[in-house]
Give the backbone structure.
Amino acid sequence: MATFAFEVKNRRNRAGKFPVYLRITQNRKHKRIKTTIEVSRLNDFNPNAKQENWIKKQEPNYKKWNDILAKELEKSKDAFRKLEEEGLATSEAMASVITNKGKPTSFLDYARKRTMEIFAEGGIRNWKKYNGFCNKLEDFLKEQKAGDLTFAELSPALLSEFKSYLHTLHNIREPEKMLHPNTIALNLRIFKTITSKAVKEGLIKMEKNPFLSFENKTIKTTKEKLTDEELQRIRDLDLQEGSRIWDARNIFLFSFYCAGIRIGDLLQLRWLNTTPEGRLVYYMNKNHKKRDLLLIQPAKEILQLYWKEGRKPTDYIFPLLNNDQPFAGAIRPEDIDTLSPENKKLLMDQLSSKTAIVNNNLNKIRELAGINKRLTSHISRHTFAYKAKQAGIPDGRIKGILAHSSLKTTEGYMGEFSTEEDDKVLSSIFEQSSPKARIMALLDKLNPEDLERLMAFIQDK
């Protein structure tokens, strides 16, 4: 049951008046709605009023203002009774009706509003997903010759029709293919999340939630990974130094050598993320976890290809993002978090377009190397996990070095662990990966006399 009471704000507004508010209380939660009444003095208002005498007689307009407040109170109680009959009597819903905004009826408008809230909060990755869902839902409604979708029209049957519609759509990145079942599942999951929020806000009765009887399943996907022989074919390609295809190979291999670092993190690496002790230290964008990795020799060799005199510590290592962009000054995770939504979107758009460039060139590398598998930047991550598994590394330790939040994700590819353990994992996996490392390993096996004879032989040559 809700209670209603008038109260006065004890601070003057810009006009020097004290506004009167209607306070709605339900389940110990309060919602305050500003009325049109403002008093000149605090003691003109009676907080313990009964019989519609909230404004004291000392105020010349007391009779007129009490009449206005009485009508506001009756309107509020009527709104409560009607919403209660519908099972939607929350303080938020009542506030909408009382302020003449009315109860929201358009699900599409509600979804668009939620999408813009996500954008304003800086969640650009989620905003893109939600915006894509809204566009698909709007196109679906146009095809159905429906101008809008009300909350009352939500049903399991409509969800099934929307799901069928999604199956007719082509993949934007690969137009010859249809939407992947997991992309369809993602859109339906967003639909469900928005609907659940509407239920919490009292816009839909809980028992009317269409997702209570609707199933939405993902399918297990094949995680492509490269063999040692395929990796070597990529290494052996004769590519023009400084070209985009050359960059793409270096990026793929560097990710592989650095425990499958994600492309979005890799493109944002700066020289200050490397240390004199031969380590790579950065924070992941996805979850802000700190990564402190040993740079094995092949990774160092790739870095040497990009190091030039005059490079600033804040310069990007790989030459895809522009150091002069508005977002380039955001170095720490908290700097990125406090970028304006527009600059965050610019950064995400740049990462997306540069990732596409890398992946397009990786496809060319795949053809040149005669690899009959899909090759993208993310496959370096799968390949690392696969190689770690082959090296006998336990799943739990692979999870730690991949910085997965669950072991289930790691197992799909084939906890936090100490830096020392991660170093041992990387060293054991890649101890024979670099030609230089292989030569050094062979030299280490020579006794001092043989090593001395070898050095003398080289000098004679």
Q: What stands out?
A: Residues 228-430 form a domain with the hpI Integrase; Chain A fold (CATH 1.10.443.10). Strands lie at 3-8, 18-26, 29-39, 279-283, 290-294. Confidence is low (pLDDT under 50) at residues 409-418.
